[in-house]
Amino acid sequence: MMRNEGKTADKPASAERSDGIRHGDPSYRRAVFALFATGLASFNAIYCTQALMPALSEYFDATPATAAWTVSAATGMLALAILPASILSERFGRGRVIAISTLLAITVGTALPFAPSIEWIIAGRALQGLAIAGVPATAMAWLADEISGLDLPRAMGQYIAGTTLGGLLSRLIPAGVLEFADWRWALGANMMFAAACSVFAVLLLPAQRRFTPKRLTVRGEWRAVTSHLRTPALLGLFLIAFLLMGAFVSLYDYLGYRLIEEFDFSPGLAGSIFLLYLGGTFSSGWAGRSAAKHGRPRILLTGVGACLASLPLIAIPTIATTVLGTGLFTMGFFASHSVASGWVGALASRDRAEATGTYLTAYYLGSSVLGVVSGVIMHDLGWGAMIAFLGILTAATGLIGAAVARSTA
């Protein structure tokens, strides 16, 4: 993801070439299955404690904000490590970084069920986030390097499907186990699944044939990142990633507490709320098609508008409105994120990889920082105050999106 010294543009040549691994080749199947499994394992590791937060609060007598650190510690360290991980992949090879990153993260994860305190879990989750950063930083670049440009969109979509499914299963597996066992067994079962996926990925991933190590300069990379931060439209998209991801993760972090305490759900049943993620899978695909037809600004603001409209529904103390509102927020979030992430690459006429890395850094940093802030608000002021805070974050996102639209018109 980093650039050669003296390089003036960072265009994904793989998207224009017809060489590389083609669909139908045995290596293509191996690569797609390996990266799909990598997505399952990595996103499973990133969010494996989110559905367990109420159970962790009860077992360790911890506040929701403290339990939220089991998610925020992982996403925070992930945010800080994405750009350094991309540098390592340019020097040592993407496949090697992916394999080491996945195996290290799962190794740390298998120790978490034996943690004696929530502080030990938080520390372990921070290490997990640091370790797993090599996957989102390099997996797409591996595909762009090795897969023919003619088949790259298909392969990229299959990898993203793995990340989506991994994120969903990281909530559903432990939530299901909680129905008949405690959080240690739930987390252990989740990590065993992720470990099997990671071993499968490492064994299947073909060796890279088109990778050439690059000589990098700290000054050049620093200049690339800071130039993007000085571009108003790109800075706006980075802020959108920070604010909207923070609001989205905050909602799902604490929704389980509301379902258990307000509506008397069991922990396992509360975890089933994550099935609403499937609505996001639909809306992200819709957003991509619609943005090409109607323009990115309109679809981005439509997604943000859906998020904003959903919050009053979520605040109403009924199961039906809570589920409906959460589903609407989920669809709006994934639609907006799909448009914003693609818009970054379109606006960055040079150093696109650095722009994408900065977007991902803001994305996960928002999850970490705002997830904890929202927990403090909920603990001190209640669910309604937290929903109001998410409304402020979402409204700010809309204003920034409108400003980006005006600046690019």
TrEMBL record:
It is a multi-pass membrane protein. Keywords: Cell membrane, Membrane, Transmembrane, Transmembrane helix, Transport. Residues 1-22 are annotated as: Disordered. Pfam families: MFS_1. Belongs to the major facilitator superfamily. It comes from the Bacteria. This is MFS transporter. It comes from Flaviflexus equikiangi. PANTHER family: BLL2771 PROTEIN, INNER MEMBRANE TRANSPORT PROTEIN YNFM. Residues 30-409 form the Major facilitator superfamily (MFS) profile domain. It is found in: Cell membrane. The chain crosses the membrane at residues 31-53, 65-85, 97-115, 121-144, 156-173, 185-205, 233-255, 267-287, 299-320, 326-348, 360-377, 383-405.
